[in-house]
User: What shape does this take?
Amino acid sequence: MLLQSTLKKLERGKIYPRKELISIMKNEKNEMSDNSLIWMIGYLVKLGHLVHIGRDQYTLSGYKKDQYFPIYSQSAIEIKDQITGRYSEIGFTVFESTLLNEFLNHLIARNTIFIQTERDTSAFVFDFIRETIQSNVLYKPSQKEFSRYWQPDMIVVLDWTSQAPLNLSAPHDITVEKMLVDIYCDKTIQLTYSRSEYEMVVNAVYGRYNVDTVRLLRYAGRRNKADEIKAFLPGDVL
Assistant: This one.
């Protein structure tokens, strides 16, 4: 009876933290312990009624995750188009810090746009941005330089790591796998958000979007952080 009454109260397509599921079960006037209710949640997953979609996150079966597509600001779109128009053959990706607001509790109010490009061409891209687009740009800054010279809507040019996971249909848009690795590994990007929220970002991303974990960890390995990042991934994806 408890399992059936619990399932009837759940909305299809909604994501439920484990604490909320426990609270719903307790409202059914049962006297089971939290540990017993956690076991019941696991049993619902085993039966196929619930799907475990992230660390301590569940939804009714039939839930389909979306493909991640970054929603860039108009400024980032214009910069991307201008670089593409000038250097059509080079590889680069665009990340901006406010993309993380979809996953954070403490929202980023003032944006930073990061252009990650091939090591041999990054200096040319930096000069092009500084001379043609805007002067408010930094080239591979140290953490100290970034903190000292940062201004809202600043552009930062960085070298990218080879064999990064890319979207072949939109090669300048950052993939979710690359984003999860870069925000953990890049010391400059780390300054734009609270590192204590990294695990929350990982859980939110895995809960909402399709993530190629093999591709993510391969890229993390290129950045020598595979084991560290693996510790933050939901246990059921490894």
About this structure: The two ends are 34 Å apart (CA to CA). The chain is about 45% helix and 15% strand.
